[in-house]
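Lab notebook, bench 4. The sequencing result for the construct came back, and we need a structural model before the next group meeting so we can plan mutations. Quick request posted to the team channel:

Model the 3D structure of this chain.
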Amino acid sequence: MAEYDQPPLSHPVPPETPRAGFARGLSGAAILAALALACAAAPLMADGSAVHRLDADPVAAALLDGRGSLSFALLAAVLGGLLGIGWALLAGILGTLAGSRAERRTIAAAQRMAGWPLALLVPLAGGLMAPVWLLALVTALTAAPAVAALAHAELSSLMRAEFLTAARAAGLPEGEVVRRHLIPNLTRPLLAAGVLALPRVLAAESFASLLGLGLPPVLGSWGASVGLAARLGDPVAFVPPALLLALALWAACAIAEGMAAGQRKS
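Done. Here's the predicted structure in token form:
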């Protein structure tokens, strides 16, 4: 029986605590805010004049490109979050009006589409010379299904919460239950789901711009700069936008994970 006294060869990795995930989210938010401020101040690095692509140093040019990437990602993330949350709410309304089968079908479509390579729609739209607002809408649509699936899961969990059951058991009218208990508690889960769109749209736009089919050159994009530097074989011009893009993607993912961890903790 001596072999049973030996320590195991490996140990299961304990799951990450909500506090650690929340701390990562705060770190991501701080990093993304610092990147946004640095990109906004990029023109000042040229003595108050505009930074020109050809004669600027690589760091200043990369920061200037970040203004286009971050601004577009924020716009597309807001649109994607709203579309996804609206999708989840529509599923809930259909479940109330037409039965649970309609709700399951509506949200099942979002769950299936979340696994599709929807990011390929962004370079397609860019290749068709779509205006920026349409490109933002297409990019938002690539993130909406994942947001809808998560928002619906959070809403379903909220609808089964004990405080709602207790309020109904106490004889509180359904309108009062919705107004006093359901609506005030909707903000956090819906926000946690909506933030999921940010890393997805930033990655989709960067991928399209890397191929030269994303944002117009006048707006600037980290993905476009990385792609151009790679095609020219210029490591000096490649490193700054690549590092800033990687840092922004990590920060966006950390924010989404932190929001989800904070929601699980509550």
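Residues 54 and 187 are 46 Å apart (CA to CA).
Will bring this to the meeting.
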